[in-house]
C-alpha cells in the first residue's frame, strides 16, 4: 500500500517534470519560430539572398595577406552584399588569437552595421581534430577511427574538436563524411568510416553527437555537417567528382542509412555531393534534395552546396545553359546556401531571379528560416563574439591523451607470421622507406593546410616514425637514411638499404602514400608505387626479417611483396600521435586491436566488398580455374590480429523463431586465451539465406569492443530484431522476408527463422 502510494506520488512528479520540460521546449521552439518570422518580415529580398550566400575568407582579406582583414572588403561582403556565412582559412591554420581577431571583426560588422543585426555563421573543415588551428593535436582520419570500433572514442574526438573550434569563435564544422569506402581508387577514401553501412552509420552518429552535444548553445558544441549528400564516394572511375551510377536499391540500402542515422543523431546541416548520380547532378536534383532529404529523412536543417558547385551546373555538368539558370535550378531543387565562394554571382542572380518572378520570395523564406533558426540555436543572436576565456580553459594535455588512445586503437595488425612481432626490446632495426621520417604522410588531408603537405605548418613536437623509434630504443639502435621529404631519391635508395641492413636483424619498411587532398590524390593505379615495391623487394632480398608499416589513405596493392613479409601493420593516417602509436605497437608496449574497416584487395581486377552477393563469386569457378572465384582479398573487412588470442563459445539466441515485434537477445562468450591483456571488437554478422533480391553472403549487424585480461571470459550481449535484418526490396521499400537467417560471431554460428506474417506477443 505505502509502496504503491509512494509510486503514485513519484510517478505524478515525473509526469509533471516531463510535462514542464516538454512545454518549455515547445515554448522555446515557438519563441524561436516567432523571432525568425519577425526577422523575415523585416528583411528585404537582398538580405534574404545574402543569408543564402557563403563566401570564402579570401574575399574579406587584405591583398597579399593570409589573415589580415580588409575592413572595406568586409563591409562590402556583409553590408552591401548581405552575406550570411563565411568559411575557410587562407593558406594555412591560424593561431587562436588570429581566429579571435577575425571573428570579432566579422561579427562586429554583422551585428553593428546591418539593419537587422544578423550574426555570421562561420564554417570550417575540422575533419580530424581542429586542423585549421595552429598547434592543435589531430586525431586519426576516419578510416583509422573506424578501425577502433570504438564509438565512444569517435564521440570524444568530435567533442574535443568542437571545444577547440568553438573556443576559436567558429560555430560550424563541415564534418562528418558519411560516404561509404567501396571504391578504393577514390582519393577521399581516408575521410570515410569504411565500406560497411552499419559501421559508417554508427560512427557518423557518434561523431555528430560529439559535435552537437545536447544543446548547440553549449560552449563546447558546434553545428555538424553530414556530407557529402549523396553518392559522392562511388565514382565509377574512382576519380574525384566524376559520375556515379547507383541503382535505387543500393542508394536506399547502402548510401542513405548513414544520413538517416545522422538526421536522427541531430545533424544540423548537410553538404551536397559535387558529383552526379545516373546523369543527374545532385545539386540540381529535387528528388535527392527535397523529396528524399526533407520528405523521407525528415531533415529540417540547412543544406549547403559544396565548393563552387552551383555554377558548375553550368560550367561542368552542363545541365544549366547559364550561370543564372544554375542558381535557379539549385535553389528550386532545395538548396539553402551556396558555397559560392569567390564572388557574389549567386547573390546577384538570386536577387534577379526573385525580382523577375522565376523564384518566389516564399521559397527564399524557407531557406532563410532554416539558416536563421540555426543561428538562434547556436546562441549567435545572444552573443556572436568569440569567448576568449574558453581558450584558456582547454585541457590540451587530455587531448593528446585521447589522440594517442585513438591512434593506438586504430593500429591494425594485418599479418604476424611466427609471431615476428612484437620486436624484442633489444632489437636493432633499420627503418627505411618514404614514410619512415615523414610527418605529412602520417596526417595527409586537412592537416594545418588543405592537403597537409606543408611540413613547416606542423607543430615541431610532432614525431616521425624514425624519431619515435629513436626515443624508444635509443638512436644507437636505429639505423635510418630516410629523409623528411617523401619524394626524395634517398628514400628509395636500394643500394643504401642493402648497406644499412648489414648491421641489423629487422627492417621496418615504412611505405604508403604521400599527403594529398581531394582531386590531388587521384591515381590511376591502385598498386603501390613501383619505387616502393622495388625497395621492398630489396629489403626482402637481404634475408632479414621485414616488417611492413603502411601509412596510407586507401589500400594500395602489395600482393607482389606480401608473401615474403612476415609482419604487416596498417597505420592508416594516424596523425599527431601516430608515430608513437606505431612504435608502441611494434615494440609490444601496446597490444593492437584495430579491425579493418574495408576490404584490402589483393589484385586490381578483384575489387569486391566483404558483403558481396553470392552471385559476385565467379560462376565457372572450379579447381585449377580462377581459384576462389571472385572474392580473394588480401585481408577481409574486420580482419585485425592481436598479441593475445581470443576464442568464442556458447553462442545463444533467446529464441530460434521470431516475429515482427520480437527482439532477440544474442549472447556469446569471449575468452582471452593468451597471456596478455587485449581488446577485441566482437562483431555479429548475419546472412539471409533466400530473398527476392539476391542476398549478401554476410552483413555486419552489431559490434561491441571489450577488453579482457589474460584468461578472462566475458559474455557479450546483442539485441537483434527483424529491422536489423531487413533489405530494400524490388519496390524500393525495406522488408524482412520470412525465412531462415544465419547469425554468427567469430567461429560460432546459429540459425534463426523469421515469420513476417505473425504478430509477436512481446
Ligand atoms: C570539399 C568539402 C569541404 C569544402 C570546404 C570542398 O572542396 O569537398 O568537403 O567542406 O571544400 O572547404
Largest sheet: 6 strands, mixed
Strand order of the largest sheet: 11-16-15-14-12-13
Radius of gyration: 27 Å
Q: Uncertain runs with pLDDT below 50, 5 residues or more? A: 1-5
Mean of all residue-level pLDDT scores: 95
Bound molecules: beta-D-glucopyranose
Number of domains: 4
What name does the CATH topology of the largest domain carry?
TIM Barrel
Helix segment tally? 20
- Care to count the β-strands? 26
The name of the CATH architecture of the largest domain is Alpha-Beta Barrel
The CATH class name of the largest domain reads Alpha Beta
Q: Give the helix proportion (percent range).
A: 25-40%
Oligomer: single chain
Strand content: 15-25%
Task: Give an account of the 3D structure.
By secondary structure, this protein is an alpha/beta fold. The chain folds into four domains: 1-39; 58-390, TIM Barrel, CATH 3.20.20.300; 411-586, Glycoside hydrolase family 3 C-terminal domain (Rossmann fold), CATH 3.40.50.1700; 646-754, Immunoglobulins (Immunoglobulin-like). Helix content is 33%, strand content 17%. It is built from 20 helices and 26 strands. The protein has a six-stranded mixed sheet, sandwiched between helices. The protein has a five-stranded parallel sheet with strand order 4-3-2-1-10. A five-stranded mixed sheet has the order 18-26-25-20-21. Helix 19 links the parallel strand 14 (506-512) and strand 15. The relative contact order is 0.09. The model is unreliable at 1-5 (pLDDT under 50). It binds beta-D-glucopyranose (BGC). Residues 88, 125, 174, 227, 271, 306-307, 518 line the site of beta-D-glucopyranose.
